[in-house]
Amino acid sequence: MYIERKLQEKVEKYIDSPEIIAVVGPRQSGKTTLLERIHSRFGDKAVFLSFEDPETISMFETATADFINLYVKNKKALFIDEFQYSPSGGKILKQIYDSHKIKIFISGSSSIDLTVKALKYLVGRVFTFELLPFDFEEFLRAKNIELTRFYIEHVKAGGIEDLSRAHLDFGEDVAAKLAGYFEEYTLYGGYPRVVTAADVKEKEEVLRGLYSTLFLREVKDYLGLTEDYRLHKLIKAFALRVGNLIEYNELGKLSECNFVLLKKYLNFLDKAYICSMIRPFFTNKNKELVKNPKAYMIDNGLRNFIVGDFRDLHSRPDAGALLENAVYSGFRKQGLDIKYWRDKKKNEVDFIIEKNGRLTAIEIKLSLDGCAKNSGMAAFLQEHPGNAALFAYLHGFNENTGNNKGNTCLPAYVL
Fold first, then answer.
1. Nearest to 269 by CA among 314, 312, 310, 239
2. Does one domain contain both 251 and 269?
């Protein structure tokens, strides 16, 4: 079953434009499926290739004229999956683009590889799109299509874009169903093959295979590691600290990495769509560069596999951090500018979203009962008056509006 991706509509807007379309993202996030879906629109006027095939990549690199005669001439579109496997791919693709009127689509599993090997040759000729694992709406579409339709029409309206539309036009039963699905999403993440797995055991096996693949085909290949125990230690230490400030000295000791190696690994893990970091919010932007970032993972399911814990949220001490990571993941997939806020007195707000010159401060709570005034939010609003404040929760129901105890409160699955 094909689960429609939001990115498909965005990409299809540029089908008739001359630019190359590059889709980047982690392995098994659905890039191949997405390109195949778009390829089907062209019928026999397009060709779909994968650079995992050694014969195809060999012809592309060593017999380019033959490649052009076979796959480019008399075609409207050329699709190349796993483009990062071609070391000289960008230069050759530029030659094809400049010499032939053909629409080109490429995909790659590593933003580092595509940037270094392809995109630097294609400046001004390429539009780049990022495809990450399912967001919650796509997850829901795979689980319950009728509820998805209701969710789009009645639930996901407003959010941080328009807090004045915080009235939630649905009942307690729907709220409970959505909260249940969002908890599953928080535990197992949004990788398509994980979402569609038949049961919990299969989900965990898929995540095991995904993690192994990341090491064998991304981490080891790119970093050229013969011993990867330090990286394993670093990833686990990082995963255990989601939602917390990164302490470089502590991570270095736990992973047995010196500072230079630690920064190198963290940068790679970010580019490989495994780990992520957000900076603090300051009106003085220079301060953002020197203060410690907070740790997050791109996908909750992969995070929980790494730490070896798939217990329900009510059974685990890191439930709040997990929910926070799930909300972060959703913001990241929307392409939002995400930061956190912390002052000298250690008052803190989980997320600061800055868009069109307006700030929204967001605190994540496990239940509606937790959406009370707190020192962090109050301190932020005192320092930055006139901006919006929002509490997001998982469990609970407010039949009146998104207002609770004087605060704007919305379910986390609305954001």
1. 239
2. yes
